[in-house]
Design goal:
The complex is a heterodimer. Chain A is mostly helical. Chain A has helices at 2-29, 34-39, 46-56, 62-74, 88-121, 126-141, 144-158, 171-201, 203-210, 215-237, 239-252, 258-267, 271-299. Chain A has 13 helices and no strands. Chain B is of the alpha+beta class. Chain B folds into two domains: 5-281 and 510-538, 3-Layer(aba) Sandwich (D-Maltodextrin-Binding Protein, domain 2), CATH 3.40.190.10; 288-507, Dipeptide-binding Protein, domain 3, CATH 3.10.105. Chain B contains 15 helices and 24 strands. Chain B has helices at 2-18, 61-67, 115-125, 132-138, 163-168, 244-252, 264-272, 302-311, 314-322, 352-361, 395-410, 421-429, 445-452, 467-478, 482-498, and strands at 38-43, 72-74, 80-82, 85-90, 96-101, 142-149, 152-157, 199-205, 209-214, 235-240, 258-260, 276-282, 288-292, 327-328, 366-367, 373-375, 378-379, 381-387, 413-419, 435-438, 502-507, 509-515, 518-519, 537-538. A seven-stranded mixed β-sheet of chain B has the order 8-9-10-1-11-22-12, sandwiched between helices. Chain B has a four-stranded antiparallel β-sheet with strand order 4-5-7-6, covered by helices on one side. In chain B, a hairpin with a 5-residue loop joins strand 2 (72-74) and strand 3. In chain B, helix 8 runs antiparallel to helix 10, helix 13 runs antiparallel to helix 14 and helix 14 packs antiparallel against helix 15. Chain B starts with a helix and ends with a strand. Classes of the chains: A mainly alpha, B alpha+beta.
Amino acid sequence: MWRPVLRRLGSGVVVLWAAATAAYLALHLAPGDTVDTLVGDGPDTPQIRAQIAADLGLDRPAAVQYVTYLWRLLHGDFGRSYVLQRPVLDIIGSQVWPTVKLTLVACAFSAVIAVVVALVSTGRSRWVRGLVSALELSVVSAPGFLIGILLLSVFSFRLGWFPVSGDRDVSALVLPALSLALPIGGLLSQVLREGLERALDEPFAVTARARGLTRRALLWRHALRHALLPAVTLAGTLIGFLLSAAVVVERVFGRPGLGQVATDAVGTKDIPVVLAVVMLSAAIYVGLSTLADLTYLAVDPRLRKG
Amino acid sequence: MRKSLSMLAAVALLAAGCGGTASGEPGAGAGAPVTGGSLTWAVETEPVTFNPHLYAQAKARLLVWNSFEALLTHDEQGGYVPWLAKSYEVSADGKAYTFKLRDDVTFHDGEKFDAAAVKANLDQLFVPGYAPGVTSTQLKHYAGAKVVDASTIEVDLKQPDVLILDFFASPQGAQISPKSLKSPDLKAGGPDVVGTGPFILDRYSKGQEVHYKKNPAYKWAPANAGHQGPAYLDEVTYRFLKESSVRVGALTSGQVDVIEGVPATEQGLVKADPSLQFAQHLNSGTAYNYYFNQAKAPFDDINVRKAFRDAVDVDGVLQGVYRGTATRAWSVLSPSGPFYDSSLEKSYGNDPAAANRLLDQAGWAAKDADGFRTKDGKRLTVRIVLSAPFVRDKRDILAQAVQAAVKQSAGIDLQVKVVDQGTATDALNKGEFEVFDNSRADTDAGAALTLIVPKGAPINRHGFTSPELDAQVAAGSATSDVAKRKEIYTGIQKTLTDNATLLPLYAPADQIAAQKTVGGVGFEPTAGVPASAYNVWIGK
């Protein structure tokens, strides 16, 4: 029983190391350097550049920098941001909660959207389904930026129902979460509807109807459970999408959050911050998938062998 | 009489249209100043640091002077107004500056502002690794400072350098409390790093906003600040909204009181709204220029440089890209500054016939199947490399408009490459460019010229050098006589124009839009960027 658990945790550590190394390599291979950013609009001479490089330890060989980095990481030391001049853990710490809040609410919104839309549109006339599919397709394929601006102009600028920006109260969370949730909800409802329709074709559905169950009860109590499985699996893989979509949403709505921090840091080659964000998202992935695998083990005895 | 009045009105309209100074009358609808209230201001740029010594983003300047102050400040004519210093004297040899300081100033943390504090700030700048950008340029001739008495400090220079006064009026020369200089967060700035200004930075949420509250003890505003005593507003919140359409929407829906950064595409909407006011001001420093790399072919030939300059209908290009909101530039310097040589206006350019004649003379007489000129079977191709993170004011679109213009009128193939910062730096270092674009926002135009003109200067990417120019630049920063400096810088501008070193395009500007109820919004003298919130109030 414990061996698979340990194996799972061990591979989790390897994944974390691989993520740290890959991110490190990618940043070093990309053209450009941190010094350019730090020079900014300010005066720029070779002496200034040399001094900045020496100050940050960027003048050492890349291999030495890498080993130092890993060693510090093992001790829980993520270093200081080159650009923001503050400890990386402080920066990440202050930005995690707004992003988590946004993602959680967006997940809830997309679940509601997906389930309601799928249940309402399943087995309806051709033109209703056509209309719903067209709507789903447009929100899935529209750029997040556009959805955000549209929601803002209607519900904030014109109607004044929600504030434009910031991380304040619940009302400030509605529009950003909705712009994240619409594309995901649209995607999930498509999968869900297909599952529902397949379930309704199954023999058990006919049997249930024959025993006098109403169509609605059949949909809600039986078909939905069958259809949920593929949708839940898909939802799990959409976490990556959520994080990258959060970048755009945070920018449009002027919200604090990890997405902003990550893009700024990549743009300015603020290596300690980028690596910390990569490590954090890798850790979330590893954590979630380990949890899922362990749950399977607990639920399904057939998987415990081997 | 009637005729002359309407003439005057026409002239005034023309002047306003040129945007040489603030257009419109900011705060006209807000009535007399009102004390109290809190204001929300949406800004485009979140500063990477709140420490003024390390200031490097022109777009963040409007935040600096809320909580920090310098010894001097600029007036509109290229001179200086006392601020934390009551007066200054220059020794006869120009190498010693003695500042008499105000003795009634305290920092937000209760520390007294005196000569020892000024010395502590200067010493901090020279701590290795702290501010190399300041010590190697603005303070490159600094020799040391002596505390004469509590309210007198003498600053010594290795050689005469009038730009030292510009330093003592710049954010980098702002005064930080000696106690804050020991803060572990010194480089990042924030609530723990304090100054003497009319507002106290008390809250900063990264990615969202920075909040200031009034400094009730404030009574040392410079004479040109608009009023004396504490600020009108009790609180001011600057919200970071990077998207211009979101800023404008937030303003039109009344969710914020003031915004800065209104691009040409949004200006019509703002100007048409009767409840809003709009103002624009040109920045100091240089214009946005295309410098020709004359270190290599084809721009080593002055005829080709002149042909490129003549081939572009700059007014037409600007009209197309900026819909009449941009101010055309004629010289390396921005028209907003005191050293600008206006005699260069309309002295060249927009002459396709001359461009074609010059290119024929230079040997680029043949044309290939695509309509581009060739010489010895080689196409007349020049490259401009734009770094995507630094593209502002739609300069990528502008480059495409210039590209179309030079192709159509003279058969020149301008290749526009928008790349990431690293690739751009690489291309510049390897000399893989023929056109280099740049604008600088230095408050003293002389500081910009020392970086662009002399041989081996950091952004001398055009490769044009001459001993006379080097001497002129040095002479310009050695004298404090404004008339003499104007004469010297006029000479430099003329030389660069005669040599066709560059194609000036437009003068960068900043915009403010605000609710009509807001009074006192305006621009900082000389710098031309939005001023701090000190003089701003919310009317009834």
